[in-house]
Amino acid sequence: MNTSVQTVRIHRTGGPDVLQMDTLELGPPQAGEVQVEHKAIGLNFIEVYWRTGLYPLPLPSSLGTEAAGVITAVGPGVTGFQVGDRVAYASGPVGAYSTRRNMPAQPLVKLPDGIGFDTAAAIMLKGLTAQYLLRRVYPVKAGDTILFHAAAGGVGLLACQWAKALGARVIGTVSTRAKAELALANGCDEVIVTSEDNTVERVKALTSGKGVPVVYDSVGKDTFVTSLDCLKPRGMMVSFGNASGAVDPVPLGWLAQRGSLVLTRPTLASFTADSAELQESADELFDVVMRGVVKVHINQRMPLADVGRAHELLTSRQTTGCTVLLP
Questions:
Q1: DSSP characters for 136-180?
Q2: Among the listed ranges 50-64, 224-238, 287-301, 309-323, which one has the minimum average pLDDT value?
């Protein structure tokens, strides 16, 4: 039996105005799939990349990678899930911008009772990103001094709290003085306001001229070279986003000239493709949230129908913390 669902899709790439609410007929889940009724949907910058065409998608296409809800139907061959399960996901085929969808069961994780739908939709992608950055790409240890760009953003607020709990000294960058206060209240020991300060000079001053062993950079084009210049010899540059635009091709000689630097461009998909690894990462994330080690800031809640406005606020850096879309 088919069900009518509301889905935000793009029929062409462009600005927020290309986001269009369509009514579609949804059939039963196929083999290996479940049907999820969404209760809350996460908003993430990768959806801007898809909307603008930076990351091409076949059109027309829905958007969205992260949501939480309840399983309403289970397709043939699915084990480990049943109707009524509270679940969340942050990967798999795009399509989270919808009231209900069919999707593969593999990317789903079960929600513990202590994690609400809003919280799950806010933290799955950002929190799992923080987990793989801090625990797997460069395992942060007590005594490390790290530099985290966009410290007042969705990933930044979670990651800086988590890094502080791991015993690191956290230097964050933000774009405004108001965001500096937010970052300082969420794990940062020092905050650099990029509109007022020279980031490289401040980092060198804060590290007695040595630089840091790791920089986490989701800003991209505007901060890439600066990030390299903040590293100590043999440090690691972790470029995991392009909020300011794609990074230009990098001459490998730059890494040698700055002291045998390591450059990586990781993605969440590579760290969650295995179901066991995904569940392990999610369990660690849920644990630090439920214990209060990491506090979640859902600072914007907007109806799914207002997703265009949500994209405008996100790209103009007018959001802080997490944004949740409500079907």
A1: IIS---TT-EEEESSTTSHHHHHHHHHHHHTT-EEEEEESSHHHH
A2: 309-323
Q: Considering the domain boundaries, does residue 65 fall inside one?
A: yes
CATH code of the domain containing 226: 3.40.50.720
Planar angle of CA 88, 56, 133, nearest 5 degrees:
50
State the Cα–Cα distance between residues 128 and 126, nearest whole angstrom: 6
* CA neighbor of 225 nearest in space, from 244, 250, 204: 250
Q: What is the DSSP string of 70-91?
A: EEEEE-TT--S--TT-EEEES-
254, 84 contact by CB (below 8 A): no
Q: Do 156 and 255 fall into the same domain?
A: yes
Using alpha carbons only, what angle is made at residue 122 by residues 273 and 218, rounded to the nearest 5 degrees?
A: 70
pTM of the model: 0.85
Q: How many domains does the chain have?
A: 2
Write out the residue range of the structural domain in which residue 288 sits.
3-123+282-326
